[in-house]
Amino acid sequence: MIELRQLHKEFGKRVAVERLDLEVPKGCIFGLLGHNGAGKSTTIGMLLGQVWPTSGAASIGGFDVSRQRGQALARVGAIFEAPVFYDYLSGWRNLEILTNYTAPVSRQRMNQVLASVGLEGRSRSNVRTYSHGMKARLALAQALLPYPELLILDEPANGLDPEGIHELRHTIRRLHVELDLTILLSSHQLMEVQQTCSHLAVLDRGKKVFDGTLGDALATPEWVRLGTDDFGQAVVLLQGSGLIRDSALPDRIALAAGYHVSDVAKLLVHSGFPIHQLTPLQATLEEFYLGLIKTQRDANTPDVKSS
Amino acid sequence: MTAISPIFHFWRQFRNELIKLFGKRRTYIGFGAFLLAQNAVILMFRFSHATRGLRRQLESGGYPVEQYLTALTIATQVVIPVAFLLLPLYAALVGGDIVAKETEEGTLRMVLARPISRVRLLTLKWLAGAFFSLCLSLSLGLFGLVFAYPWFPSGGLFALNLGGGGGFSVFSPSEGLWRFGMAHVLLATKTITVMGLGFSFSCFNMKPAAATILALTLLFANSVLMNIPWFSEYRGWFITHHLDIWEYVLQQRVPWSEMGESLSILVGYNVTFFAIGATAFQLRDIKS
Question: Is A65 an interface residue toward B (CB < 8 Å)?
C-alpha cells in the first residue's frame, strides 16, 4: 500500500529522515514509532506531498506522491495531532469544505459518517463550541468521508484524556475490521501502538532502526527470569561464556543472539548453580523500544577510553 | 463519491473559499471602517464649511451650485481619502491573511492532505480575494451614495481632476451616475492589485501580519520614491503610478490610451505577483 524508497530529507544541514526504505502492506495497522524529532511527522509530510523529499520516492497504491499526487491521495484520509478546523464554521460546513477538495459526497454519506463518529446531533454547531474529543471525532469523520483505503494518523492521541485514548484505540480497530482499512499510525505512545498495531517501524534521529511485526519486536531481546542462590556469580559465568548480553537486578538476564534458555540451564547445572526459576519473559514494547534506542545511542557514542 | 463536471467541481471549491473568507469576522473590518469614515466625511461636508471650496470652483466656472453640489458629488469626494488610505490597508490585510493565516492556524495541512494541487488551491484563494476586493470597492460607492442622499439633493456630478492637469469635470445626473459606477468598478483594479501583493507575500513562510506590513511598506516606498523629483522621468515604472486609473473615468475626456496602458501594466503586475507567490508556495514545505 505504501512504499518508501531511499526517502531522504534535509532541512539545511540537519538530516530529518535518512534514506528510509519502508513498506506498509495492504490491510495492516502499521505503527511508526519514535521520540519527538525522530522524523515521523516529516515522513508523513513527504507521504502526503506536503514536504518535498531531498531525494528518494514515496508512493501510495503504486502512485508516486510527488508526480501523481492526485491519484495517490484520492483514497487517503489523514488526521493530524491537535485537529484544527475553521472554528467559526459549523462541523457540517467544515466537512463539506474539506470533502470538496477530494470530491463532493452526498448528504446521506455525510449523515452516515457523522452518525458513525457520534456527532450527528452537534454537526450544525460552530466548531469553536466543540470539546477536544469532539474535534478528534470530527477529524475522523473528515478522514472517512472520501471512502479511504488508507488512513494516516499522525499522533492522533495527543491531548486526549485516557477515556478518549481508549475510545480512539477501539475506533481504529473497529474501522480496520469493518472497512478493511490500511492504517499508518505515527505515535510515541507505546501502549497505544502495542495494543493496536500488527507491524511497526522505529525511527531514531531520522534513521530506521527496526522494521517488522509486533511479534518480532516483542521476541527480541529474550529476557529470562533467573532464580538462583548467587545471581551475581551466575551472571559473571554466563557473560564470560557469551550466553547473555545483558542483565538486570534482581533476577533478569537477556539472552545473547542464538542462545536459548536450555543453554543457560545446561551451563548453570554443569557449574553447580542451583536453579529455582528459569522463565522466559514476554517483553513489553516499552522495554523493546528503550533497549533498541539505548543500543543505537551506545553504538553511536564514541568510546571515551579508546580515544 | 458523487461524479460532477470539472467546472461545477471548481465552482464548489471556489464557493468553499468564499465561505471561509466571508465567514470570518475580520473580513468585515474594512466594510465597517468604510461605514464610519464615509459617514464622518459626509457629515463634515454637511455641517461645516467644507463645501466652500467646491462652491467657489463651481461659481468660478459658471455652474449652478444647487445642480452640482449633490449627493453624487459628495459621494465622489468621500471616495478620495478612503481610496488612498483605507482601501489599500484592508485589501493588504485580507491578501496577507489569505494563505498565511491558514498556514499559521494549521488548517492548510488538513487541506493539503487532500488530492488538490497547490496551484489550484492558490488560484481558488486568489479568485476569492479578487471577489472580496470587488465587493469592497463597490461597497465604497454604494455606501457613499446611500449615506449622502439623506443630506444632499440629487443632481449632476462635479469631480475634481486628480490625475494631473488640475481643473474639474461636470456631468449630467445620468452620465454622472454612470461615471461614478465605472470609477468604482475600476477602483477594484487597485484593490485587487494591493490584495494580490499581500497574497504574494502570504504564500511565503511568514506570519499574516508580516505579509500585510510588507505589502503596505512596498506600496508606501513606491509612493514616496515616485514623488521624489529625481525619479520624475521614471514615474511609469512605479506601481503606484498605475493604481488610480479610476480617476481617469471622472475626467471630462477619458484618456483611454493612458488608461489601457496602466490597466495592462496592472494585469502584468498581478500575474507577476501570483507567479512569485505560487512558485514560493509550490517549493516550500508545509509543516505543523
Answer: no
